[in-house]
Every structure is written in structure tokens, then in C-alpha cells.
Predict the 3D structure of the following.
Amino acid sequence: MDYQFVINSLYDKVSNEPLQGAVANYIPELAKVNPKYFGVALTLTDNTAFAIGNADIKFSIQSIAKVFSLALAYSLIGDEIWQRVNVEPSGTSFNSLVQLEADLGLPRNPFVNGGALVICDILMCQLEDAKSQLLTFIRNLSDNPLIEYSPNIAASEKTNGFRNIALCNFIKSFGNIKNHPNDVLDLYFDLCSIEMSCSELSKSFLFLANNGCKTTDGLKILNYSQTKRINAIMQTCGFYDESGEFTFKVGLPGKSGVGGGIVAIHPNLYSIVTWSPLLNEKGNSVKGIHFLEQFTTETQYSIF
Ligand code: GLN
């Protein structure tokens, strides 16, 4: 398979499509991004890497980071984690409150904001300094000590994060947040503010395509079963109320963020990342989904 040829030709094709969608503007800092950026990076499990476009510009990875926090929490407490967060697709938007009351504060899955807040709470209970240990974990996954939180993005989100503040306090009222909601929110906003490029993200997600082991030094992050389960949750819940559509079109487990990034995993084969900040009404990157749909069609590899 000539991957570079495939991504180059699809990149040209998708780049030339008219711009559709809008940048996320409910976090003012995110609205400043150039909507024309478009990058793609692909890393195979043998560490061969391919890239095109703005693949080396760092962007706000937003909800993609929820996979890192889940992986770390899962590695720390194992299956106990499922007593605090469910594994069902929500069919609602990432910041919806509607199901939480009927579900007695048990978030539907770890990728909706409520679920990610509970995971942050777990990390704070387990770790001495969750903020820095989480960053160390992500730096280790990407073999890159330069990965950072963005204080500007975190502050911008904190000032405008009324829904997340409501979600965290609401879950706290059911007893499913143990720490002070303000502290949990701080960690959550920091988590969402992490900045990485397509190439860095693609590399750091490769352990999920490699049965839980890093491909560079063989370090075991998760066991086989845990890896399979995280991929399963990405498949069913990674795109909120567009998860079915993404599975239908792309057919890979993946995770999106409102910064316009998408990561998708082909178990045992590769990790691919696209970044284009223009989002559809579900908060997922229009060009990213379009590119990936054609990528899995062209390459003809499928997990199904
Ligand atoms: N930080 C964003 C929020 O909490 C994350 C949403 C996303 O990327 N889908 O609203």
C-alpha cells in the first residue's frame, strides 16, 4: 500500500472542496484559529510515518485528550472505573445534561463531558499531583517532553464554561464527584487545553493500535482487554450523537475534539489523525470525516 500516495491524493481532493462548517466559538480562544488549516498524519505500528499539509502545527486537542485521561485512570484502578461511568452511547451532544438526572449522576460514557469530569475526579483521588502526572503520561506516550497545556485556552474555557460547571456540580450532588467541583473543573479545562500536532497525536495514540504497548519502546500502558475496551468505547461513543454515522462512514474507532482534530485507530495497523477546524453541528470536523471516509474506502482495510 502506497500510503503517502493515498493521503496526498485524498488531501488534494478534500482541500479543494468548498469550506463548510464553523470553528467552535463558545470557547473564544478557539475561534481565533485559521479555518483553512488542514493536516493529516498517519503512523503505522512499525513506526513508519506519513504526513501532509499542516500536520506539524500544534492545535487544541480538546476532547481527544479524554482518551488519555481514560487510559491513565483505567490503568490505575482497572474495572472499578465502570462503577463511576457507563459505556453506553448517549445519543446526545457532548455537553448535554438531560440524561444525568434520570441516570442518578452516572454519565453515559467517559467521552461525554460529564463522564470526562468523573474520570478527572478519579485521577485526582489516585494521584498526588494529577495535573502534572497526567502531562507526564501523555509526554511518555508521545516520547515528547515538549507537550504542554495551554493556559490561554484553559482560562478562556474556564471563564465561559457554564455548562461544564453545571454538569460537574450536578454530578457532585449525586455523590459521583468526590473532590471539590472547582478543582475537578480546573483539571478538566487543563486536559482539554493540551496542544499537539497531527504527527504528535498520531504517534501517541499508536499504543491503542498495538494491543496497549508503545511501539517505540514496548512499554505496556494497558493490557489487551483494556485496550480492546477503550477502542470499543471510541467506536460507539467517540463522536457523540454522530458516533453511528462515523462508524457507518469510516468504520474505525476514533475520537474527535472541538479544536477540529480527529484520531482514528485501525487495530494492529495504524493510527491516523486529521485536523481541520471547521465543525459540523455535532461538533466534529467536516473535512476530517470526509477525508477519513475516503481513506478507509481507498485503502480497503476494515475491522468489519
Ligand atoms: N472543552 C470542550 C468542552 O468541554 C470539549 C468538547 C469537545 O471537544 N467535544 O466543551
About this structure: The mean pLDDT is 97. The first strand starts at residue 39 and ends at 44. The radius of gyration is 18 Å.
